[in-house]
Design brief:
Layout (H helix, E strand, L loop, with lengths): L1 H12 L15 H7 L9 H16 L1 H4 L6 H19 L5
C-alpha cells in the first residue's frame, strides 16, 4: 500500500530526527496524510522531493525542515512505491 511505503521511507529517513529523540513511531502521520494525496500528480523523483520538503516546511518551518537535498533519498524510495502502485492499479483484477 502506498501510505505504508511513504510512512516507511519517512520513518527510515527521520528527516528532522524526531524518532531519534524518542518520538512515537506514528510521529509523522499528519505529514504523511498531507503528502500522500499530492503524490497523484508527481512525474519524477524530484517532484516527490519537492513535495516532501514543502510539507515539512509547512509543518515545522524552514529552519527545522532543513535543506531540500535531505529529502532526496526518501523521495527516491517513495517514487519507486508510487510507480509500483500505479502499475498495480493499471493491472486488471480477477473476474
Amino acid at each position: 500500500m502506498l501510505v505504508a511505503a511513504v510512512e516507511h521511507a519517512i520513518n527510515e529517513a527521520d528527516p528532522i530526527s524526531l524518532l531519534e529523540i524518542g518520538a512515537p513511531a506514528d510521529e509523522y502521520a499528519p505529514e504523511i496524510g498531507t503528502i500522500v494525496p499530492r503524490l497523484a500528480s508527481v512525474e519524477k523523483s524530484e517532484d516527490v522531493a519537492t513535495i516532501l520538503h514543502e510539507e515539512f516546511i509547512r509543518w515545522f518551518g524552514e529552519d527545522t525542515a532543513g535543506p531540500r537535498h535531505a529529502y532526496e533519498a526518501s523521495a527516491r524510495r517513495i517514487w519507486d512505491a508510487v510507480m509500483e502502485f500505479r502499475q498495480n492499479a493499471d493491472e486488471p483484477g480477477p473476474d
